Amino acid sequence: MQDVVIIGGSFAGLSAALQLGRARRKVTVLDTATPRNRFADHAHGILGHDGKAPQDILAAARAQFLPYRSVTFRNDGASLIEGEKDRFVVTLFSGDRIETRRIILSHGITDIMPDIPGFARAWGKTVLHCPYCHGFEVADRRLGVLYFGPLSAHVTAMLQDWTEDLTVFADGHEVEPEFRAKLAHKNIKLVEPKVTGIIEAGGVLSAVQVASGAEIGLDALFVGPRQKPSTNLHAQLGLVMDEMPLGQIIHVDEMYQTSVPGIYAAGDVASPRQSVPLAMAAGNLAGVNCHHSLLD
Ligand SMILES: Cc1cc2nc3c(=O)[nH]c(=O)nc-3n(C[C@H](O)[C@H](O)[C@H](O)COP(=O)(O)OP(=O)(O)OC[C@H]3O[C@@H](n4cnc5c(N)ncnc54)[C@H](O)[C@@H]3O)c2cc1C
Q: Does residue 152 share a domain with residue 283?
């Protein structure tokens, strides 16, 4: 019987495992090696790690588990959770089953690529989701925002700190009058027709193509794709979910516990604000709270 099975061994899951390992609890970390930022060559905004490759940060973290012998790593995924607090059974892709008293869900989310040719190839390279993660590297270049609802106005306002050459692509949507007026006031270009293609080579963007046939030269496009949890474990378990502008996340209380007692969640899958440092902080707290719940 394990004390905790952690499903997802990336930034949130490893942070939880570190605290539980330091508390000498029996932990199994399951991971399928697909962290969300694997498409980017470099990660930014992470104190002490700015500019490192995501996989290098994770490899360094994994290497630090050597002293914590009660933590076991398995390159395997979880497909099913049964049972209840103190008596869960996790079934793995391999068919193996692990009994555990607690579970932490830290399997992250999946960004859903829209059906625009070239979009997925440039994702994480020049089609970007976060100005703080990537803005500095494309500063003073020709930047664009692909309209994705009311949040687009906020991203557009932020990007003015990174460039004066900004274009908003309405992508055939009706842009809110207030946003439209702001764009006119700030002299930000608005391209109305539907986006039909991302012109790129090896992920490096050169233009955005729209339905009129026009190609608008661009160096980076900021977007907000919809997202979904990376597994369907939340649906199997009937977990309470929170609706966010870009998709659903798992609802947790202030202890990071989900609506099922004994199951915790941390990182992107349970957070409206998503970044590596925030996933690490949430994982740390979920690990600590989970440990407290195991004390007699
Ligand atoms: C292109 C891109 C670039 C980014 N750049 C930055 C940046 O520069 N700075 C920053 O702070 N944030 C950045 N982010 C955000 C960052 O990637 C996430 O906030 C962070 O990875 C969340 O960590 P997590 O541990 O919650 O989930 P993830 O890192 O996504 O890890 C989830 C883990 O769970 C595993 N998993 C999935 N399903 C299962 C299963 N069934 N069983 C077991 N394991 C499973 C996956 O393989 C994965 O390893 C970026 C995001 C993207 C998309």
A: no
Nearest CA to ligand 1 atom 40: 77
pLDDT of 296 higher than 90:
no
Q: Are 144 and 215 members of one domain? A: yes
- Interface predicted TM-score (ipTM): 0.99
Whose alpha carbon is nearest atom 37 of ligand 1?
A: 107
What is the domain-level CATH number for residue 85?
Answer: 3.50.50.60
Same domain flag for 70 and 102: yes
Q: Judging by DSSP bridges, how do beta strands 2-7 and 97-105 pair with one another? A: parallel
The preferred substitution site among 28, 36, 132 for testing ligand 1, maximizing ligand atoms within 8 Å of CB, is 36
pLDDT for 28 equals 98
Residue 178, CA atoms < 13 Å, CB-side half-sphere: 7
Q: How far is the CA of 36 from the centre of ligand 1 (A)?
A: 3
What does pLDDT average to over the chain?
97
Nearest of 199, 82, 224, 76 to residue 142 by alpha carbon: 199
Q: Are both 6 and 105 inside the same structural domain?
A: yes
Residue range 187-196: mean pLDDT, rounded: 96
The token duo for 78 is: 């979880």
